[in-house]
């Protein structure tokens, strides 16, 4: 896994692909993008925090406050949407 | 968020540590015997930003890296685990606010924590310790306000605290709420005669229909309790881990000085092989715990997901070594250290508690075992 911010163009497809690889590496299981990771027991609260830190570092976003809710992390697709939304929001205010 | 920070150790944190030593003086022994640290000292250190030194400069804090704050924590821990415990509580409150709060809440609360107000964080209850999912404290939404009901036990630093960060069940999930200790319906009762960290201000808290503005709830109500607790505890664990490094440094130095000067059977006791082994083991313990903490803090500073597991590892390694190391130090010191208040006697009692709080040895092992299984090649 890479801890460095990504330099590649960030699209829904690239985020989804990177997340699927990250999950497969860590859980040794191939997961479909819409699979409920918590219901399937693949993700513990410890691993959920690893996911938060990974997304923050890799995509240069801050996931705090109200965004730290389970629904944002339930599936790869929902995490992808969260990252895109946070990146759009920070671009809109002239941030990263 | 992973805000990039520089490491101020190279820029003279050594001088700052000397200034802190001057404030602490020779008092830790007396604080231990009295069961109290003078409130004005805590306020002074708090107003200088030392009790939660990672708070960003934009909020008036010192903006230390995890690594530099770790060295600070170990240094204070080598002097007094009670004071270090107050730091852990204050830092955990700040970190919890930073992670869970919205921007306005952070802007209001974080500056208070670096200007002399003190804070503590309540998790455990009578029937909810290692398994916090059984927590019975409730945060009920009621229009523009929320109502807090329940209790917390063994909240470190709560006796001194102006602000209490309290976790409870809320809106189908969980939430953390910030409660002024002076709010109507809040009762703070000191834990009588704690075995260790006797001056850390452990208290039991009761909340009877405590009505607060809805803005007291950090972030959004209904978040998953395990994720909230895991997030908050991460800071507590790394802080306790560094505090244990401090315990080990104090034990190693005290025992080694004594062993070099105290003579029996015609030579310094350190030259007797069985005593020498204690000293070697203390050195190994201190170095091993230091490396585990440095690695974990470097993961925090790099924003690496490995921070999560490396923090549990550091906490477990450091607490275990501190407990065995402190016992060895008492053994080497013998009658010279066997009275309450002495640095190794305090270390012996304080270190044992470190194997219990912020994830007991057993809970840490369960987490590490689960990680070993899930990452098996």
TrEMBL record, chain A:
This is Carrier domain-containing protein. Pfam families: PP-binding. The lineage of its organism: Bacteria, Bacillati, Actinomycetota, Actinomycetes, Kitasatosporales. Residues 9-87 form the Carrier domain.
